[in-house]
Structures are given as structure tokens and as C-alpha cells.
Amino acid sequence: MINVANKPLSAEDWAAACKHLVRKDRVLRRLIPEHAGQLLRRDADGFALLVRSVVWQQLSEPAAQQLWRRYLALPGACTAQGLLATSDDALKAIRLPQRKIGYLKDLAQWFAASPKDALSWVGDDDDAVADTLLALRGIGRWNAEMFLIFHLGRPNVLPLDDAALQAGISAHYFSGDPVSRSDVREVAQAWQPWSSVGAWLIWRSQNAMPMALHMD
Prior knowledge:
- This protein is mainly α.
- The chain has two domains: about 5-40 and about 155-210, Endonuclease Iii, domain 2; about 45-150, Hypothetical protein, domain 2 (Endonuclease III, domain 1, Orthogonal Bundle), CATH 1.10.340.30.
- It is about 55% helix and about 0% strand.
- It has twelve helices and no strands.
- The protein has helices at about 10-25, 25-35, 45-55, 60-70, 80-85, 90-95, 100-115, 125-135, 140-150, 165-175, 180-190, 195-205.
- The N and C termini lie far apart (about 40 Å).
């Protein structure tokens, strides 16, 4: 039997989440009507999402955007087989660091050996999915959390280290003062079991979706 917490958010789930958050959080009570009719957009291609997150990580937004545009210009580089067929020299030519080339090739080999879509993960809870991804070189906790939220649509994921989420919580709850992981966790206690929805609303309110999810 599939655990319902492992299934992607549906429109009915989203409505239930909003009802819960309106009751539990004064900030989200104001934000939810501003984004009525909008839902979290899932990325159907989990491999491309992970590639994007690795390319973008640890770069400023302008630098990451430039590198990502050059990456997208490489034929087939957003598919596992296409990336494996792309030479290291071609990847170096777009100024992709050698370390990230290694990470991406490992990721491509893993997906090519065992192709996966969102349904492949329904038997695994969030921790199990994260543990599987964290075993791959170059995939950190944040990458795994973005995969859980934006590919699998899991309802209760809280990316404590996401800079955009921290900035939004700082602006809405702490008058712009810096926030810690503990501060984020404390604010989000009221969001349970819909932390992904709460995080999405904060991102949307700041027009600051996680960098790795920019498509162009």
C-alpha cells in the first residue's frame, strides 16, 4: 500500500494545505489570497532538475544563469544518454568546472543504468529518497530537497538551508533581520504537515523561487 505522504500534492491537497495554513500562520493567511489559483509546478524530468541544481549550486545568480545558458546550448545535455555522449572537452569549453563534470557524469550513469520517473519513488518516504540521492557524488541535502518538492511534489519538505526561503522568512517574520536554521524551523512548525506549500508561498511572495529551478 502506498503511503499517502509519498504521493505528489494534488489540487485537493493544495486546498487542504491552504485551509490549514490560513488557520495556523498569520503571514500565510495574508499571502494565500494573493496567490489564489496558483499551484506548485512540478518538473516532470527529475534528471534535468538534478543537473540544473548541480550546475547552479555555489554560484551567484548572474554567473549561474550564464553557465546554464551555455549548458543548454549543448545538444542533449539534459538527458542521461546525451550527457554521457557529451565529451568532457565540450563541457570544459562552456567553463563547467571539472569537479561538476564528474558529478554530472556520475549522475547520468546512475540514471542511464536505472531509468526513473516520479512513480519510481512512491514506495520510498522522503528520508529514503534523500538518502538514495545523497549517496551520489555532488548531490547535497538542498539538491535532494529540491527534487522532493519540485519533482516528486512531496507535501512536507522544509529546505532549511535555502537562501531564498531564509530571506523570505527574514522579511516576513523578523523585520529583515538575519535568520538561522533554528529560526526557519521554529516558524515552519505551524506549517506541518504542509511545509512544502508554506515554503512555496514564501518563495512566491518574494518572487524568489530557488535558483536551480529557473529554466532560462
